[in-house]
Amino acid sequence: FFFPSPSADEDDKSKPAGSDGERRGVKRQRDEKDEHGRAYYEFREEAYNSRSKSPPPPEEEPREGEDDETVVILDTYTSDLHFKASKDRYGGQPLFFEKFPSLWSGARSTHGVTKGKICFEAKVTQYLPVKEGSPEVPLFRVGWSVDFSHSQLGEDEFSYGYDGRGLKVENGQFEEFGPTFGENDVIGCFANFEGEELVELSFSKNGEEVGTAFQISKESLADRALLPHVLCKNCVVELNFGQKEEPFFPVPEDYVFIHAVPVEDRVRTPLPPKTTEECEVLLMVGLPGSGKTQWAQKHTQENREKRYNILGTETVLHQMR
């Protein structure tokens, strides 16, 4: 059915009179520009353009004598991306300790060993401040691992650590071992390859022997080199590979620091790319749960020589446990 609309005169009569001839109780639609002056929009534009952006990552400081590949230092090529090495590469700390106090950060040395009686020292030089009320406490773990093992020292095969809580850890298994240690303590790490069938790893605290923590079958190790390895959370660590004139504490006479091992008897981890053009970045695109992480992990294992760093939440969450 069609009903004719009321005439204009009837329509006008039905509208209650208002100050502007509008219906009472209905707010007049005003243009946004009428409500704010020019200064408002200039301020908003300036605020938008000057909005604080995320700070760029700090550039790695060039190390003096960087071209000398015979020097035993921490390897920033194989370390965690969030491990901040000191300029001389004889120490370091977590990069994001303020915002992520539960995040562990690890690094290995550039050289490893396969024979002899070798040692190095690690000192917890400082505890980093955490936010008030944070349940996280500074922790340090030190020991030995093989190339291609995870940065989480002691949490996979052929990775052996002494934890500041007095625990030893191998392949993810934690056991009571020795005294706890922390700020200003020095841990001596010793690797004895001279046994016929076993490699013995032992530790000391502030010059006092703690004892043998691990015995590794040479057959299972299969000539893999053991590399000094540190893992820290909310603390700063300093290492002595033998570059110091005097050690922090005396070591047994039959042990030598890894830096004093002849170059030909050391095993160097692969050198990093010389230029960024030699590097490779793969960007995964897909819906959640479509298999991006699984594909990336499989591709990484199939191309280990490329040493991909997978940037994803799964790795970070694992390092925060």
UniProtKB/TrEMBL annotation:
UniProt biased composition (Acidic residues): 58-70
Highest taxon in the source lineage: Eukaryota
SMART domains: SPRY
Pfam families linked to this entry: AAA_33 (PF13671), SPRY (PF00622)
Signal peptide: none
Biased composition annotated in UniProt, kind: Basic and acidic residues: 12-48
GO process annotations (BP): alternative mRNA splicing, via spliceosome
Cellular component, GO annotation: nucleus
Keywords from the UniProt entry: Methylation, Nucleus, Phosphoprotein
Domain B30.2/SPRY: 52-246
Main location per the UniProt record: nucleus
Subcellular location: Nucleus
Protein name: HNRL2 protein
Record organism: Anhinga rufa (African darter)
Gene that specifies this protein: Hnrnpul2
